[in-house]
Amino acid sequence: MELWLSGVCIVLLALLIDAVIGEVPNAIHPLRWMGNLVGFLDRHISRKSRNGTRLKGFLSYLVVLIIFGTVAIVISALTRHYLGEIAWIIVSAILFKLTFAIISFRRHCKPIQKDLDAGRIEGAAAKTQMIVSRKTAGMDAEHIASSCTETVSENLVDSVVSPAFYFGLLGLPGAVLFRCANLMDAMWGYLNERYGDLGFFVAKFDDVLGFVTSRVSIVFVTIAALILRMDWRSAIPMAREGRHLTPSPNSAWSMVACAAALNISMEKKGVYVMGKGDLPTVNDISRCIRLVELSSLLFMLAITIPLFAFLGIHVQMFFENLLLSLGGLI
Fold first, then answer.
1. In angstroms, rounded to a whole number, what is the distance separating the alpha carbons of residues 163 and 239?
2. Is the CB of residue 292 less than 8 Å from the CB of residue 148?
3. How far apart are CA 256 and CA 50, in angstroms?
4. Which of 2, 47, 158, 312 is 20 to 30 Å from 193 at the Cα level?
5. Residue 273, SS3 per DSSP
């Protein structure tokens, strides 16, 4: 099979796995293992000076990247060497799938929607606490729905567009490169005494990695909104206008674009209000999920497939062949 065609098959199979199987259990998910390693490093790193702590934060990122990047490449390389091309395509698709999530938006929000429909506001708030960092106890139904639409629209970039872009660009090493930075930023990227220095590098690097993808995402939100007959004309202008609404330089782009397309407002009390419509309803959560899922699919088809088929797959095979040659297998 031509190499570019193998690349197309890998991305399509990864999308199929996401749609049919979804996420592996959290206990055995590589991101859980990655988080455990980051937690171990956190507990054993001394913080005696600002520059020294920042250097340790940078070296910690390299440790996590090298370990998980090497494991991914070793698995794919050995599969190709011993089991052949078809098995390699399947394994590469599975490994890629572990770095992104599309259908999980729907699965995380569905129990919350059921509680809201049944009037179980406290139950919905408790479930919402599992997907957002803010305090949800005492929230009304509208702000619970807003929290859901916010996390779904924000994660369009972090959970789909960014890992898919770097996979397209650099193959599995690229997807792991982004996923390590993004997870470590989530754990260490707090501007406080404990993490302000340790998480300095990963916070800045995650911002750099998300700079292009966050801005590109609004184009696909616009196209998806057009297909779904939403307010596609407002998505890009309002995203540009509201891009500074979040502390992160990247988070607001996809969030404001989705709010504009849906004609709703998303509100985090005391922090921001995005969009110009009413606060979302339960039905708007479903509309937001459809918008983000279609945006994700369009990005994969238009960007990830051609980029990986003609570039990223060659980078991945370079690293695979390098490891095989170091092991004396080629």
1. 22
2. no
3. 36
4. 158
5. strand
Cβ contact 280:149 at 8 Å:
yes
Residue 16: phi and psi, rounded to 5, are -65, -40
- 272 vs 122, 196, 242, 255, 281, CA distance in Å? 24, 23, 10, 11, 18
Question: CA of 1: how far to CAs of 5, 86, 95, 149, 244, in Å?
Answer: 7, 9, 20, 42, 47
How far apart, in whole angstroms, are the C-alpha atoms of residue 227 and residue 311? 29
214 in Cβ contact with 227 (< 8 Å): no
Per-residue pLDDT of the chain (330 residues; tens, 9 = 90+): 899 999 999 999 999 999 999 988 888 899 999 999 999 999 999 998 999 999 999 999 999 999 999 999 999 999 999 999 999 999 999 999 999 999 998 999 999 999 999 999 999 999 999 998 888 888 999 999 999 999 999 999 999 999 999 999 999 999 999 999 999 999 998 878 788 899 999 999 999 999 999 999 999 999 999 999 999 999 999 999 999 999 899 999 999 999 999 999 999 988 999 999 999 999 999 999 999 999 999 999 999 999 999 999 999 999 999 999 998 876
Per the CB < 8 A criterion, the answer to whether 146 and 134 are in contact is: no
Cβ atoms of 157 and 214 closer than 8 Å = yes
State both tokens at 62.
């390299």
